[in-house]
Protein backbone atom coordinates (compact mmCIF):
# COMPACT_ATOMS: atom_id res chain seq x y z
CA UNK A 1 0.00 0.00 0.00
CA UNK A 2 1.40 3.42 -0.96
CA UNK A 3 1.16 6.35 1.45
CA UNK A 4 1.38 9.10 -1.17
CA UNK A 5 -2.36 9.53 -1.55
CA UNK A 6 -2.88 12.10 1.20
CA UNK A 7 -0.15 14.32 -0.24
CA UNK A 8 -1.78 13.94 -3.65
CA UNK A 9 -5.15 14.92 -2.17
CA UNK A 10 -3.61 17.99 -0.57
CA UNK A 11 -1.99 18.97 -3.85
CA UNK A 12 -5.25 18.43 -5.67
CA UNK A 13 -7.08 20.63 -3.18
CA UNK A 14 -4.56 23.45 -3.49
CA UNK A 15 -4.36 23.19 -7.28
CA UNK A 16 -8.14 23.18 -7.59
CA UNK A 17 -8.32 26.66 -6.14
CA UNK A 18 -6.05 27.97 -8.90
CA UNK A 19 -6.47 25.76 -11.92
CA UNK A 20 -9.40 23.36 -11.77
CA UNK A 21 -12.96 23.10 -10.60
CA UNK A 22 -13.68 21.24 -7.35
CA UNK A 23 -15.13 18.39 -9.39
CA UNK A 24 -11.64 17.68 -10.68
CA UNK A 25 -10.82 16.40 -7.21
CA UNK A 26 -13.81 14.09 -7.25
CA UNK A 27 -15.93 15.95 -4.69
CA UNK A 28 -19.30 16.01 -6.42
CA UNK A 29 -21.78 13.35 -7.48
CA UNK A 30 -19.64 11.04 -9.58
CA UNK A 31 -20.39 7.32 -9.73
CA UNK A 32 -17.62 4.75 -9.85
CA UNK A 33 -18.12 1.02 -10.18
CA UNK A 34 -16.42 -0.91 -7.41
CA UNK A 35 -14.11 -3.51 -8.92
CA UNK A 36 -13.72 -5.28 -5.60
CA UNK A 37 -10.08 -6.06 -6.31
CA UNK A 38 -8.34 -2.74 -6.66
CA UNK A 39 -7.86 -0.59 -9.74
CA UNK A 40 -6.00 -1.38 -12.93
CA UNK A 41 -4.15 1.90 -12.41
CA UNK A 42 -0.38 1.76 -12.13
CA UNK A 43 -0.71 3.29 -8.65
CA UNK A 44 0.37 1.09 -5.78
CA UNK A 45 -2.43 2.31 -3.50
CA UNK A 46 -4.81 -0.62 -3.68
CA UNK A 47 -7.64 -1.83 -1.54
CA UNK A 48 -8.14 -5.24 -0.03
CA UNK A 49 -9.08 -7.86 -2.65
CA UNK A 50 -12.72 -8.87 -2.07
CA UNK A 51 -13.16 -10.55 -5.45
CA UNK A 52 -13.36 -14.00 -3.84
CA UNK A 53 -16.43 -13.21 -1.74
CA UNK A 54 -19.46 -15.21 -2.85
CA UNK A 55 -23.06 -14.07 -2.94
CA UNK A 56 -25.11 -15.15 0.08
CA UNK A 57 -28.49 -15.94 -1.44
CA UNK A 58 -30.37 -15.90 1.85
CA UNK A 59 -29.03 -12.47 2.82
CA UNK A 60 -29.46 -11.09 -0.69
CA UNK A 61 -33.11 -12.18 -0.66
CA UNK A 62 -33.73 -9.87 2.30
CA UNK A 63 -33.16 -6.75 0.20
CA UNK A 64 -36.23 -5.01 -1.26
CA UNK A 65 -36.66 -4.66 -5.03
CA UNK A 66 -36.12 -0.93 -4.69
CA UNK A 67 -32.46 -1.74 -4.03
CA UNK A 68 -31.93 -4.78 -6.28
CA UNK A 69 -33.89 -3.82 -9.39
CA UNK A 70 -30.97 -2.10 -11.14
CA UNK A 71 -28.36 -4.66 -10.05
CA UNK A 72 -26.39 -1.98 -8.22
CA UNK A 73 -25.63 -1.11 -4.61
CA UNK A 74 -25.28 2.68 -4.66
CA UNK A 75 -23.18 4.09 -1.83
CA UNK A 76 -22.74 7.78 -1.03
CA UNK A 77 -19.25 8.80 0.16
CA UNK A 78 -17.19 11.93 0.76
CA UNK A 79 -13.89 10.96 -0.82
CA UNK A 80 -11.35 13.11 1.03
CA UNK A 81 -11.31 11.16 4.30
CA UNK A 82 -8.22 8.97 4.12
CA UNK A 83 -7.75 6.19 5.08
CA UNK A 84 -11.50 5.50 5.23
CA UNK A 85 -12.40 6.83 1.79
CA UNK A 86 -10.26 8.83 -0.61
CA UNK A 87 -8.97 8.92 -4.17
CA UNK A 88 -5.93 7.12 -5.52
CA UNK A 89 -3.05 9.01 -7.07
CA UNK A 90 -4.94 8.95 -10.37
CA UNK A 91 -7.50 11.33 -8.83
CA UNK A 92 -10.37 9.10 -9.95
CA UNK A 93 -10.37 5.72 -8.22
CA UNK A 94 -11.94 5.45 -4.72
CA UNK A 95 -9.94 3.51 -2.12
CA UNK A 96 -10.00 3.04 1.64
CA UNK A 97 -11.49 0.69 4.20
CA UNK A 98 -15.04 2.04 3.72
CA UNK A 99 -14.65 1.47 -0.01
CA UNK A 100 -13.47 -2.10 0.56
CA UNK A 101 -16.36 -2.75 2.94
CA UNK A 102 -18.82 -1.36 0.40
CA UNK A 103 -17.40 -3.61 -2.30
CA UNK A 104 -17.57 -6.58 0.07
CA UNK A 105 -21.23 -5.86 0.84
CA UNK A 106 -21.96 -5.69 -2.87
CA UNK A 107 -20.40 -9.13 -3.28
CA UNK A 108 -22.51 -10.60 -0.45
CA UNK A 109 -25.65 -9.13 -2.04
CA UNK A 110 -24.66 -10.13 -5.59
CA UNK A 111 -24.78 -6.48 -6.68
CA UNK A 112 -22.32 -4.19 -8.44
CA UNK A 113 -21.17 -1.56 -5.93
CA UNK A 114 -21.37 2.00 -7.23
CA UNK A 115 -19.49 4.59 -5.16
CA UNK A 116 -20.95 8.08 -5.57
CA UNK A 117 -18.78 10.98 -4.45
CA UNK A 118 -20.64 13.77 -2.66
CA UNK A 119 -20.18 16.42 0.02
CA UNK A 120 -20.34 14.98 3.52
CA UNK A 121 -23.31 17.03 4.71
CA UNK A 122 -25.44 16.04 1.71
CA UNK A 123 -25.22 12.27 2.20
CA UNK A 124 -27.65 11.56 5.05
CA UNK A 125 -30.46 13.63 3.44
CA UNK A 126 -29.95 11.69 0.19
CA UNK A 127 -29.96 8.13 1.59
CA UNK A 128 -32.99 6.30 0.23
CA UNK A 129 -33.33 8.59 -2.77
CA UNK A 130 -29.94 9.07 -4.46
CA UNK A 131 -28.09 6.36 -2.50
CA UNK A 132 -29.03 2.94 -1.15
CA UNK A 133 -26.48 3.41 1.65
CA UNK A 134 -24.30 6.11 3.14
CA UNK A 135 -20.89 4.75 4.18
CA UNK A 136 -18.58 7.62 4.98
CA UNK A 137 -17.24 7.47 8.56
CA UNK A 138 -20.60 8.60 9.94
CA UNK A 139 -20.57 8.88 13.72
CA UNK A 140 -23.84 7.53 15.11
CA UNK A 141 -25.70 10.15 17.13
CA UNK A 142 -29.24 10.25 18.49
CA UNK A 143 -29.96 13.23 16.27
CA UNK A 144 -28.82 11.41 13.14
CA UNK A 145 -30.86 8.35 14.12
CA UNK A 146 -33.94 10.55 13.90
CA UNK A 147 -33.21 10.91 10.18
CA UNK A 148 -31.83 7.49 9.18
CA UNK A 149 -31.29 3.95 10.43
CA UNK A 150 -27.74 2.92 11.23
CA UNK A 151 -25.88 -0.38 11.24
CA UNK A 152 -22.78 -0.07 13.43
CA UNK A 153 -19.48 -1.30 11.97
CA UNK A 154 -16.58 0.69 13.46
CA UNK A 155 -15.61 2.94 16.36
CA UNK A 156 -13.31 5.94 16.43
CA UNK A 157 -12.27 8.72 18.74
CA UNK A 158 -11.45 12.29 17.78
CA UNK A 159 -8.01 13.91 17.59
CA UNK A 160 -6.76 17.50 17.68
CA UNK A 161 -3.87 18.15 15.26
CA UNK A 162 -1.44 21.08 15.22
CA UNK A 163 1.79 22.04 13.51
CA UNK A 164 4.85 20.23 14.84
CA UNK A 165 5.86 21.75 18.15
CA UNK A 166 2.50 23.49 18.58
CA UNK A 167 3.86 26.97 17.70
CA UNK A 168 0.48 28.62 18.37
CA UNK A 169 0.38 27.14 21.89
CA UNK A 170 -3.05 25.58 21.34
CA UNK A 171 -4.70 24.34 24.53
CA UNK A 172 -7.79 22.21 23.92
CA UNK A 173 -9.15 23.14 27.34
CA UNK A 174 -9.27 26.78 26.23
CA UNK A 175 -9.65 27.31 22.48
CA UNK A 176 -10.62 30.98 22.76
CA UNK A 177 -8.66 33.08 20.26
CA UNK A 178 -7.83 30.04 18.12
CA UNK A 179 -8.73 29.26 14.51
CA UNK A 180 -10.16 25.73 14.39
CA UNK A 181 -10.40 23.82 11.09
CA UNK A 182 -13.08 21.13 10.72
CA UNK A 183 -15.09 19.41 8.02
CA UNK A 184 -18.64 20.62 7.44
CA UNK A 185 -21.37 18.42 8.87
CA UNK A 186 -19.14 16.41 11.20
CA UNK A 187 -19.47 15.85 14.93
CA UNK A 188 -16.13 17.64 15.27
CA UNK A 189 -17.67 20.74 13.68
CA UNK A 190 -20.47 20.63 16.28
CA UNK A 191 -17.91 20.39 19.10
CA UNK A 192 -15.85 23.27 17.70
CA UNK A 193 -18.93 25.47 17.40
CA UNK A 194 -19.86 24.68 21.01
CA UNK A 195 -16.38 25.74 22.12
CA UNK A 196 -16.68 28.98 20.14
CA UNK A 197 -20.06 29.76 21.69
CA UNK A 198 -18.65 29.15 25.16
CA UNK A 199 -15.83 31.61 24.49
CA UNK A 200 -18.41 34.23 23.56
CA UNK A 201 -20.55 33.46 26.61
CA UNK A 202 -17.50 33.79 28.86
CA UNK A 203 -16.56 37.11 27.31
CA UNK A 204 -13.23 35.78 26.07
CA UNK A 205 -11.48 36.30 22.76
CA UNK A 206 -13.50 34.72 19.95
CA UNK A 207 -12.65 31.30 18.56
CA UNK A 208 -13.03 31.11 14.78
CA UNK A 209 -14.34 27.88 13.25
CA UNK A 210 -13.13 27.32 9.69
CA UNK A 211 -15.55 24.77 8.21
CA UNK A 212 -14.63 23.15 4.90
CA UNK A 213 -16.53 20.77 2.65
CA UNK A 214 -13.37 18.67 2.24
CA UNK A 215 -11.43 17.03 5.06
CA UNK A 216 -8.19 17.61 3.14
CA UNK A 217 -8.87 21.36 3.33
CA UNK A 218 -8.98 21.19 7.13
CA UNK A 219 -5.54 19.59 7.25
CA UNK A 220 -4.20 21.94 4.58
CA UNK A 221 -5.36 24.96 6.58
CA UNK A 222 -3.11 23.94 9.47
CA UNK A 223 -0.15 23.07 7.24
CA UNK A 224 -0.37 26.49 5.52
CA UNK A 225 -1.00 28.42 8.74
CA UNK A 226 -4.54 29.49 7.92
CA UNK A 227 -5.75 27.59 11.00
CA UNK A 228 -4.11 26.86 14.33
CA UNK A 229 -5.57 23.38 14.83
CA UNK A 230 -7.83 20.88 13.10
CA UNK A 231 -10.13 18.30 14.62
CA UNK A 232 -11.09 14.99 13.01
CA UNK A 233 -11.79 11.30 13.61
CA UNK A 234 -8.72 9.58 15.05
CA UNK A 235 -7.90 7.30 12.05
CA UNK A 236 -8.22 10.26 9.67
CA UNK A 237 -6.10 12.52 11.85
CA UNK A 238 -3.46 9.81 12.25
CA UNK A 239 -3.29 9.25 8.52
CA UNK A 240 -2.99 13.01 7.87
CA UNK A 241 -0.11 13.28 10.32
CA UNK A 242 1.71 10.38 8.66
CA UNK A 243 1.49 12.00 5.24
CA UNK A 244 2.89 15.47 5.95
CA UNK A 245 6.61 14.75 6.47
CA UNK A 246 6.60 15.67 10.16
CA UNK A 247 4.77 18.98 9.70
CA UNK A 248 1.83 17.93 11.90
CA UNK A 249 1.41 16.20 15.26
CA UNK A 250 -1.43 15.10 17.53
CA UNK A 251 -2.24 17.33 20.47
CA UNK A 252 -2.96 15.25 23.56
CA UNK A 253 -4.77 11.94 23.56
CA UNK A 254 -7.74 10.85 21.45
CA UNK A 255 -11.03 12.01 22.87
CA UNK A 256 -13.83 9.49 23.29
CA UNK A 257 -14.57 6.45 21.20
CA UNK A 258 -17.91 6.48 19.40
CA UNK A 259 -19.51 3.98 17.03
CA UNK A 260 -19.79 4.74 13.34
CA UNK A 261 -22.52 3.36 11.15
CA UNK A 262 -23.84 2.63 7.69
CA UNK A 263 -26.80 4.93 7.00
CA UNK A 264 -30.01 3.47 5.56
CA UNK A 265 -33.33 5.20 4.88
CA UNK A 266 -35.41 5.53 8.04
CA UNK A 267 -38.44 3.77 6.53
CA UNK A 268 -36.44 0.90 4.99
CA UNK A 269 -36.28 -1.78 7.67
CA UNK A 270 -35.69 -4.54 5.10
CA UNK A 271 -32.44 -3.02 3.88
CA UNK A 272 -31.33 -2.30 7.45
CA UNK A 273 -31.82 -5.94 8.43
CA UNK A 274 -30.06 -7.17 5.28
CA UNK A 275 -27.08 -4.86 5.83
CA UNK A 276 -26.82 -5.94 9.47
CA UNK A 277 -26.74 -9.61 8.44
CA UNK A 278 -24.19 -8.93 5.70
CA UNK A 279 -21.84 -6.93 7.93
CA UNK A 280 -22.09 -9.57 10.65
CA UNK A 281 -21.26 -12.27 8.12
CA UNK A 282 -18.13 -10.35 7.07
CA UNK A 283 -17.18 -9.94 10.73
CA UNK A 284 -17.71 -13.62 11.50
CA UNK A 285 -15.82 -14.99 8.49
CA UNK A 286 -12.80 -12.74 9.05
CA UNK A 287 -13.11 -10.58 5.93
CA UNK A 288 -13.97 -7.47 7.92
CA UNK A 289 -10.84 -7.71 10.10
CA UNK A 290 -8.65 -8.40 7.07
CA UNK A 291 -9.91 -5.19 5.48
CA UNK A 292 -9.17 -3.16 8.60
CA UNK A 293 -5.71 -4.70 9.00
CA UNK A 294 -4.96 -3.92 5.35
CA UNK A 295 -5.34 -0.23 6.21
CA UNK A 296 -3.83 -0.43 9.72
CA UNK A 297 -7.04 0.62 11.49
CA UNK A 298 -7.98 -2.61 13.26
CA UNK A 299 -7.99 -0.87 16.66
CA UNK A 300 -11.46 0.44 15.83
CA UNK A 301 -12.96 -2.97 15.06
CA UNK A 302 -16.33 -4.05 16.44
CA UNK A 303 -17.39 -7.66 16.96
CA UNK A 304 -21.11 -7.07 16.50
CA UNK A 305 -23.10 -5.15 13.89
CA UNK A 306 -26.23 -3.62 15.43
CA UNK A 307 -29.20 -1.74 14.02
CA UNK A 308 -29.52 1.61 15.82
CA UNK A 309 -27.37 0.62 18.82
CA UNK A 310 -28.36 2.04 22.18
CA UNK A 311 -24.77 2.13 23.46
CA UNK A 312 -22.97 4.59 21.18
CA UNK A 313 -19.59 4.82 22.90
TrEMBL record:
Residues of the signal peptide: 1-23
Low complexity: compositionally biased ranges: 32-47
Residue stretches making up the Solute-binding protein family 3/N-terminal domain: 72-299
Protein origin, superkingdom: Bacteria
Keywords noted in UniProt: Signal
InterPro entries in UniProt: Solute-binding_3/MltF_N
Region of interest called Disordered, as start-end residue ranges on this chain: 29-48
SMART domains the record matches: PBPb (SM00062)
PANTHER family: ARGININE-BINDING EXTRACELLULAR PROTEIN ARTP (PTHR35936:SF17), MEMBRANE-BOUND LYTIC MUREIN TRANSGLYCOSYLASE F (PTHR35936)
Name of the protein in its database record: ABC transporter substrate-binding protein
Organism the protein comes from: Bifidobacterium apri
